[in-house]
Design goal:
alpha/beta; 18 helices; 7% strand; globular
């Protein structure tokens, strides 16, 4: 019997690649020139070839050809250290295209970066982008160029201050929003992450030109459901045109304008939008809304049948505004979340709210923290909570009420929470919305 001894003692027939494996490697190497071969494969074979595909393949080749899977996971992990797929509907392909487009927009310098960079990628990603989370928007660099000496610096600074605001603006979203036919959420912050020694306040605010551009862009985006523009120095003047164009928007259900400088005039515009739209969630915390703005919101809230979430934290509505909102809740039958923390409220508002808690069976979360409710307000709320069975979360920290009343309120809340868990998730799904 003949015995053949291999030169390599570790050699085994198992190491010989199969014909199928060789074909897969050939298709992976030649995919750019022979896309039709990949298209004819079964879904199982496509998944098997994805680990063999080169990450340097052009995007116009892989965008529509390669399905969601290992290839897009490799692309994401190569570019970004943190990849939480749960934030993207558990789709690696969606994560890649959303973050890729976000990076292009955040690094786009108006009047300098070629817009063709954006135009080339839009047809490739339009079917996969459902959310844009833009954390930085740059201005033209010429606006912040300074001279070499102090005199030149002063001249440049004066020129920047005298420059008409209409001549400068950030990235124009008109073309992008018109092309992204699947976009549902848009989050914008008009700021620069790292400005270094070239700090200017203009780097941290939306301009009039930006507002006009956004009003046009929103008209072409009919699928938008969530809009957030935070920390962008939006005032009453800039707020009005933005909200006016959203009044007839067919799908918008959430609006977040928190951490801006909206006052009573802007609050009235928000109230008008609330009266004509189908908003379910409204966040205008940390603005400068006072009594008249709160009263305008309360007037609409009393007749509104869609809003579920209202956040007015860190404004200055005071007791006059607080009472108006509380009285509106006696008629409102849909609101489940209300945040009035840090609004200079006293026991006067607490007494009116206590009457609401006796009748309202819809409100589930109430935040009154950082208001001087005192013992009188605490007693009124405690007595009302003894007869309330629906409120499951009530924040009364830093309200200057005595320990006895606070304990009574917290005990009532705990009882409601236990009863809510006993009723089960089906009941909660019918009575509230997950925010």
């Amino acid at each position: 019997m003949r015995i053949i001894i291999a030169e390599d003692p570790n050699w085994s027939l198992d190491l010989v690649p199969s014909l199928s494996s060789l074909c897969q490697r050939c298709i992976a190497d030649k995919i750019e020139d022979h896309k039709y071969l990949f298209e004819k494969l079964t879904p199982e074979l496509k998944d098997a070839i994805q680990p063999k595909l080169s990450l340097s393949l052009p995007l116009h080749v892989t965008a529509d050809l390669v399905p969601d899977g290992v290839f897009w996971k490799r692309c994401c992990q190569q570019r970004w250290n943190i990849c939480d797929i749960s934030l993207y509907g558990f789709s690696w392909k969606r994560m890649f295209f959303e973050r890729h487009l976000e990076n292009l927009i955040e690094l786009f310098v108006p009047e300098e970066t070629d817009f063709k960079v954006i135009l080339d990628v839009l047809p490739l990603c339009k079917n996969y982008v459902k959310r844009l989370h833009i954390t930085q928007l740059l201005l033209p660099s010429r606006k912040f160029v300074k001279g070499r000496d102090d005199d030149q610096n002063e001249v440049a600074t004066l020129a920047n201050e005298e420059e008409d605001d209409t001549t400068t603006g950030h990235f124009d979203f008109g073309t992008v929003l018109a092309e992204l036919t699947e976009l549902e959420e848009l989050y914008l912050v008009y700021r620069i992450k790292q400005c270094g020694m070239n700090f200017e306040w203009a780097m941290f605010q939306i301009t009039d030109r930006d507002c006009r551009a956004l009003t046009i862009a929103f008209k072409g985006c009919k699928t938008l459901k969530v809009l957030r523009i935070r920390q962008s120095q939006i005032d009453d003047k800039k707020c009005r045109p933005l909200l006016r164009c959203l009044m007839e928007h067919p799908s918008l259900i959430e609006l977040d304008l928190s951490h801006n400088i909206i006052r009573d005039g802007g609050a009235r515009s928000v109230a008008e939008l609330l009266s004509k739209g189908q908003l379910k969630k409204l966040n205008i915390c940390n603005n400068e809304i006072e009594v008249q703005g709160a009263q305008a919101l309360a007037e609409v809230l009393s007749n509104n049948s869609s809003l579920l979430y209202l956040n007015l934290r860190l404004n200055q509505v005071r007791d006059e505004g607080g009472q108006a909102i509380a009285e509106a809740l006696q008629k409102n039958t849909t609101l489940t979340y209300l945040n009035l923390a840090g609004n200079d409220l006293t026991f006067i508002t607490a007494i009116v709210l206590s009457k609401v808690l006796l009748k309202n069976r819809r409100l589930r979360t109430l935040d009154l923290s950082c208001n001087l409710l005192g013992d009188v307000g605490g007693k009124a709320l405690a007595e009302a909570m003894a007869h309330n069975s629906t409120l499951t979360d009530c924040d009364i920290r830093e309200t200057d009420m005595d320990e006895t009343n606070a304990t009574s309120i917290n005990k009532a809340i705990w009882t409601n929470q236990c009863a809510d868990r006993y009723r089960g998730p089906l009941h909660r799904r019918r009575s509230t919305i997950c925010i």
